[in-house]
Amino acid sequence: MSSLEARDLRVGYGGPDVVAGLDLVIRPEQITAIVGANGCGKSTLLRALARLITPTGGSVLLDGQEIRTLSSKAVAKRLGLLPQSPTAPENLTVEDLVARGRYPHQGLFRQWSPTDEQAVEEALAATATTDLRARPLDELSGGQRQRAWIAMALAQQTELLLLDEPTTYLDLAHQIDVLDLLDGLVAERGRTVVMVLHDINQACRYADQLVAVRDGRVHAAGAPGEIVDDRFIGDVFGLEARVVEDPVTGTPLCLPIAQRRSTRCAS
């Protein structure tokens, strides 16, 4: 089982570090949700874990090895990534996109195989994109495109899967479909999932480990039921809220307290 860890990680873009001396161990065969206010460094952290950004200090270890010393193909065989705003060549079809998830498994003497075909078919079926396979990405709705990109990441069949806001552009029903799918990958196939989420209630419902980032550091980490309370919401999001027990799952449920309430005058 692949392991992923950050040690004293520092990442910047030429100015002050966005991620500042952060330590994090990703637990295998679990869902880790990274949460925090806008600009806190959570997406930068995910990009650094995926080797898309070179740290200014510290290290990221994949299976105990410094990730920046590994080849791109070696990383891609163990770690799949869905970035926040992926792009694809014009007129690329859904099936062609998903097939690109098999690239790490190709080689000079290892070309397209029935195993690759099966991986693509399973990824299309899992994301309900089979009927879209022949359509160009640029003709799809935002939600359809997002599901196609998730299918590509699934076709890669890595033990580690990193996703930056995977429910972006999806309506509520498809958000739950995607999160249920990821939950099933962990429960049934032993995958390890790390995802950035904006919805704290969805993060609490689906995550085994919640990592709250504040000012580029881990403010709190642990099981949602152990760390999420009224004070946590105030510290991490700057929001007054009441945290109660979700009547469906028993996980923490955040109820924001409106700072201002509009009034309407009867005519």
Structural summary, described in words:
This protein has 267 residues and is α/β, with parallel strands linked by helices. It has a domain at 4-88 and 158-256: P-loop containing nucleotide triphosphate hydrolases (Rossmann fold), CATH 3.40.50. The chain is 32% helix and 24% strand. Strands 6-7-8-3-9-10 form a 6-stranded mixed beta sheet, with helices on both faces. Strand 1 and strand 2 form a beta hairpin. Helix 4 (114-126) runs antiparallel to helix 5 (142-155). The radius of gyration is 20 Å and the shape is globular. The N and C termini lie far apart (66 Å).
Strand order of the largest sheet: 6-7-8-3-9-10
Q: Decide which structural class fits the backbone.
A: alpha/beta
Task: Please state the second-level CATH architecture of the domain at 4-88 and 158-256.
Answer: 3-Layer(aba) Sandwich
Largest sheet: 6 strands, mixed
Unreliable stretches (pLDDT < 50, length at least 5) are 263-267
Subcellular location: Cell membrane
Membrane topology: Peripheral membrane protein
InterPro entries: AAA+_ATPase, ABC_transporter-like_ATP-bd, ABC_transporter-like_CS, P-loop_NTPase, Siderophore_ABC-ATPase
Organism: Solirubrobacter phytolaccae
Name its key features:
267 residues, Rossmann fold, disordered C terminus, 32% helix
